[in-house]
Specification:
Layout (H helix, E strand, L loop, with lengths): L1 H21 L11 E6 L2 E7 L11 E2 L2 E2 L6 H10 L9 E4 L5 H9 L4 E4 L7 H8 L3 E4 L11
Parallel strand pairs: 5-6, 6-7
Antiparallel strand pairs: 1-2, 1-5, 3-4
Helix pairs in contact: 3-4
Bound molecules: zinc ion (ZN).
Zinc ion binds next to helix 3.
Length: 149
């Protein structure tokens, strides 16, 4: 049983690191966030923060993030809306703790678990997720893989 748990933790950490690599796709300068949606051990969607399709790839204006920039979670979830997949019962891996707006989308999209890597001073998003029964876990993606196999 203990082995089983550590196996899941290893997978979680790897997906979280993948989300961090995915964040490198973001052309936003102030902050780069990456997200992956995983269901039945398959990555069914991905996202990073950025402007909507068709808009120029510039997130900031006078060093302030434009109001229409989509967060990584919102991009991953809306990408699913255009696919034949669905996020019911899936896990979202995201490099930063979700804001309240994204948390609403996460709840409505049927995501059951959120693993995030970076804490934010505001906890209203995480609080809302927990209130809705979504399992929320903070993990340090650089945590050493100490256990065997
Ligand atoms: Zn957000």
């Amino acid at each position: 049983m203990e082995n089983q748990l550590s196996k899941q933790k290893k997978l979680d950490l790897r997906y979280l690191r993948m989300a961090r690599i995915w964040a490198e796709n973001s052309y936003c300068k102030r902050r780069q966030v990456g997200a992956l949606v995983v269901k039945d051990k398959m990555i069914i969607s991905d996202g990073y923060n950025g402007t909507p399709s068709g808009f120029e790839n510039i997130c900031e204006e006078n060093n302030v993030t434009k109001p229409y920039v989509l967060h990584a979670e919102a991009n991953a979830i809306t990408k699913l809306a255009r696919s034949s997949n669905n996020s019911e019962g899936s896990t979202l891996y995201v490099t930063a703790s979700p804001c309240i707006e994204c948390s609403k989308l996460i709840i409505q999209s049927g995501i059951k678990r959120v693993v995030y890597a970076e804490k934010y001073r505001l906890t209203d998003g995480v609080d809302l997720l927990k209130r809705a029964g979504v399992v929320v876990e903070y993990m340090n993606p650089d945590e050493e893989e100490t256990s065997q196999d």
